[in-house]
Amino acid sequence: MLLAAPRFALPETVGEALSALAERPDAVVVAGGTEVMPDLLWRVRTAAGFVSLRRVGALRGTSRDGDELVVGAGTPVAALVDAEAGALAAAARSLGTPLVRTEATIGGNVVSALPYRNMLPALLALDARLELTSDTGRRTVAFDGFTTAPGVTRLGEGELLTAVRLPTRPCFSDYVKIGRRNAQYVATVSAAVVSRNGAVRLAFGNAGPVPLRSDAVDVVATALLDGRAGPDDLRAAVADAVDPPEDTVASAAYRRHALGVLATRLVVRAQVDAGLGS
Amino acid sequence: MSSEADESVTFSLTVDGAAHEVTAPWSESLLTVLRERLGVRGPKTGCAHGRCGACAVRVAFEPDRADDDGHVLCSCLLPAATAAGCSVRTIASIGGPDGELSDVQEAFLAEGAVQCGICTAGFVTAATELLDTDPDPTREQIEAALYGNLCRCTGYGRIVAAVETAARTRREATP
Amino acid sequence: MRRPDGQAKVRGEFSYAGDLHAEGMLHGVTLRSPHPHARLLRIDTAAARALPGVHAVLTAADVPGDLHFGLTLRDEPVLADGVVRYAGEPVAVVAAIDPRTARRAARAIVVEYEPLPAQTDPTLAADAEPLHAEGNVYRHLAYECGDPRARGVVTVENTYRIGMQDPAFLAPEAGMATPTADGGVRLEVATQWLHSDQRQIAWATGLPPEKVQVVLAGVGGAFGGREDVTLHTHACLLALATGRPVKMEYTREESFLAHRQRHPGTIWLRHSADASGRVVSVEGRVVLDGGAYASTSPVVIANTVTLLQGPYRVDNGRFEGWSVRTNNPSCGAMRGFGVPQAAFAHESQMDALAAALDLDPLEIRLRNALRRGDTATFGQRFTQPTPVREVIEGLRAVPLPPAGGKLPGGVGRASSPGSVRRGVGYAVTMKNLAFSEGHVDESTATVSLRDGHATVHCACAEVGQGFVTVAEQVARTVLGADTVTVTQPDTLIASAGSTSASRQTMASGTAVHRACVAVRDRLLARVARERGLDAGLLSIQDGAVTCDGTPLVDVAAATPGHTVRATEHFAHPPTTALGQGDVYVGFAFSAQRAVVDVDVELGLVSVVQIASCQDVGTVVNPTQLLGQIEGGIVQGMGLAVMEEVVVVDGHITNPEFQDYLIPTIVDAPEVVSVYVTDPQPGMPHGWKGVGEPPLCTAVPAVAAAVRDATGLPLPSVPIRPEHIALGIGTPPTVTRTTPRPPATTGGTALSEEPADRPGTWESEGAAGH
């Protein structure tokens, strides 16, 4: 433990972090701080203490475990900008700003669980799994379904997200997002694609209360990939599947429209990658 | 209601080479600690939520490691206590002690990249890190490295010119 | 020449208002209304006062002087008085030993509100229940010229909407007030107009103005947003109440709530033209939402209404406008001061006319271009250089950029070259310079010279624009000074007016120039006397006193130990009320061409290049001139495609930089800037203001380019992605009309007296721009 105070802990190991959290059950777990600090400023969150994961070395960095890439939850997003999975790299490269990416962590992005967060559609499309660690051990769950509502996850009491595991089987993957300026913006909507062995898996950000994917969309997307369906079919399928928010940034109608466009463009990129398209 | 003692933590911090012992509320940002507790006012408060980059400083989290030269971040987003024992370099560490300017500072001045100047320390800090990493950036790379810094006066044209000029100066100075 | 303050700025050593610090200082915090409209039933400050570390808690009852202030109408309470009229209105202020304690105390103040219905629709304001004893109409004005019913062969009309833009200067408001030994107060503050602050602080404190000393602290951008008083008076009241220095510094969120935004507006315009594209008549109607308090709303509306004609000759027209009170955030000065709204509307109309007549957009503008000697719709003759044709021709000579460049959507990578359409759009605008409508536009400077070192003292606020460079450049050039100090502006010298309205190089630059000339003449007279020479043969060249071209002695050694000092004043020729002659001091003209790439399907825009040709009088400092052009263009482009303060039921939903978007370095276009230099009469070397036209022109130019790429009408700015992707926006109505020549010609007639109340305008050039 580098530093401990009644309402603050700066552990160096996962074990220390878990016990620090057990001793301060009301504390907010803070990794990079890039979300927590503005939240405190804007009073959308209060904190009864901090347990900081910043100095837990074991949570930073990536490794291989069989056919999975294991990304420590405390790995800054900046470390992923050249990731092999195109979707992961693209989502990382367009997150926040260069000065934020060095601090924002993949774990923080997942646990914050807001539907517009950059990494989430990429992780969903890539079929990521999450490693959750507590005093009683470690469990691994699918990222799909981990978020249950905006800002709410299945992370248990006293449990830490310690790693994100991604399949390394070869695939084409990509990620796109749109907003109201050309850099440093929150996604109005976003989308990610994974295309592997002729099957397409799409995922969407800010298309509903949680990161969203749908078998029905993927069936049409796969059909579009091999020419059995047209772009309009995919757009219609996406429009049916999504339930985007209406707010002062954009209307739900625009978001629904744009999600269809993004889906189609991503499948076309997968087509080109597969040598199927022009 | 918590006691005052519960509110604060005490930790060490090296700022521009000087060692400090800081006692501050555990949620206080590095920016606030620098400006309000240590009187280090080079980093500026533009938005305090990580959008404008006026507070950019360079932090080495493992200052004892020779290969940790630090990286630039928004000091408003960093809970200061989580940087306990770290080394922070602000704009005061760029350029010489007697008013000498670094190549980047010189270029910002020469190219008219400074108007009101509230964003300048942040831009100089970020641009210096860019050129330390890549002495010959394209315009696209300059923009990609600097879009975390906002400027409301210049429209950025002179800032891009300044970074290009600094890069050229640096290349010419190192044969 | 480099900025004299640049060295400190690049080293991070320049002291801004937010850096102010004094031994024993207290921190001031403001409690603001959460309601856009409510009655104040009860304020209980007892708990807040009782907190340890709290030194003062002030409400309206504690204001010793006049509770009300304002740049035009004195309608705004220093602290809420019985009723709050916008969300964010100051209700109480606290001074405590540190910001945390002060914030805690502010939260401990109990305020009971009775929420009232919020009147947030400006189009209903005029006839709605008055929100204030001063009524809901800040100003109504209407006038005609020629025969407004004259028609050409085609008539186009549409309604245009302009969103609320925030100045978004990067250093939030800050200042520190210190009680002085004489019972007065000294305020160091980031401001645009020291003497206006001084006057308004004096009202509230009940002090004579000479006991209120205002000193400029380092300013991190302004753009109009620091013209009004915000924390100034609060800091002074707290300092006087506590006897200690009190510093106040807003957060970014507070900054959005507290300062004035650009007026959002609705403009209806009808243009009729003959077959050659010559405009026959223009009719226009404007409603600007001034928000809760007047600020400069009565002045801004005159700019918008009178400049609806654009830089074109219009002989027949009818123009009317209202700026009104609502429970929305207060609006006031922002760079362009009512003209970007007009420019967006009139340039959209020119393009609509060109399309209806199948004319080239530049050709129709050339055919209508104002010329020297023409008369404006508001009766003023253009007696100065009026290079409208010249700026258009200058722009036309700039080559178009090649294909390619930054893709729309930028880092999100949603677009590919195949999904993008290029568009090119043009705009030409006219911006009035300096204060207007009878408000005196003046400045004063004192210059002293001793052993080659010049000191310049002027109350002109340096806000980033580079007045300090101009002042030093003038002192070096005229006096041959080796070194120059431009002292920090304060109220110990006479007013320099506001750093706004593109006016300071003209007003304060000229005052400095005159003072330098006076010092030079005295120095030369002394040298002549001492050496028995004819003063008429002496001059200063390259740092030396010369006689008939032969160097005599260095300026630095000419009169050792002797100080030569002069104070000089400058005022523009007086202007008049609307309808009585010259309403404006002068005008600047600007033409721009925007090139954009648009991803039409997604509604994403990349502004590739903006070429500008501006009428700048003469070039004073090429680097600073380019800085004004580039900076103004990017702010205008921001209003065109991204910047909007979103107000829902009186509440700003995006008072921060995550959702209020200003352009980043990735968004900024390449700027190509060329100039028409036609010296401005009456100014040293023909200087002319340059700061506002680039912004005014960029708004319609970018909008026109996006229209060109998409074929959509896009009658609102900022253009949102969904306006493009979903085709939202009503096209202009185009009518083929039967030509009707004007029945009467000439003359400008006010239809009604403007609604400003006599006696409420302040004596000293109150905010006329």
Automatic annotation (TrEMBL), chain A:
Question: Where do the FAD-binding PCMH-type domain residues begin and end?
Answer: 1-171
The family database entries (Pfam families) matched by this protein are listed as: CO_deh_flav_C, FAD_binding_5
Q: Which GO terms describe its molecular function?
A: FAD binding; oxidoreductase activity
- Domain of life where this protein originates: Bacteria
UniProt keyword annotations, A-Z: FAD, Flavoprotein, Oxidoreductase
Q: Which residues, if any, are the signal sequence?
A: none
Task: Give the PROSITE patterns listed for this entry.
Answer: FAD_PCMH
Q: Which InterPro entries match?
A: CO_DH_flav_C (IPR005107), CO_DH_flav_C_dom_sf (IPR036683), Diverse_Substr_Oxidored (IPR051312), FAD-bd_PCMH (IPR016166), FAD-bd_PCMH-like_sf (IPR036318), FAD-bd_PCMH_sub1 (IPR016167), FAD-bd_PCMH_sub2 (IPR016169), Mopterin_DH_FAD-bd (IPR002346)
Entry protein name: Xanthine dehydrogenase family protein subunit M
What organism is listed for this UniProt entry? Goekera deserti
TrEMBL record, chain B:
Give the protein's recorded name. Answer: (2Fe-2S)-binding protein
PROSITE patterns annotated for this entry?
2FE2S_FER_1, 2FE2S_FER_2
Q: Do you know which SUPFAM superfamilies this protein is assigned to? A: 2Fe-2S ferredoxin-like, CO dehydrogenase ISP C-domain like
Q: Where is the 2Fe-2S ferredoxin-type domain?
A: 9-94
Q: Do you know which CDD domains this protein is assigned to?
A: fer2
The scientific name of the source species is Goekera deserti
The cross-references to InterPro entries, in alphabetical order and at most eight, read: 2Fe-2S-bd, 2Fe-2S-bd_dom_sf, 2Fe-2S_ferredoxin-like_sf, 2Fe-2S_ferredoxin-type, 2Fe2S_fd_BS, Beta-grasp_dom_sf, Diverse_Oxidoreductases
Q: Which domain of life is it from?
A: Bacteria
Q: One Pfam family name from the record?
A: Fer2_2
GO function terms (MF aspect): 2 iron, 2 sulfur cluster binding; metal ion binding; oxidoreductase activity
Tell me which UniProt keywords the record has, alphabetically: 2Fe-2S, Iron, Iron-sulfur, Metal-binding, Oxidoreductase
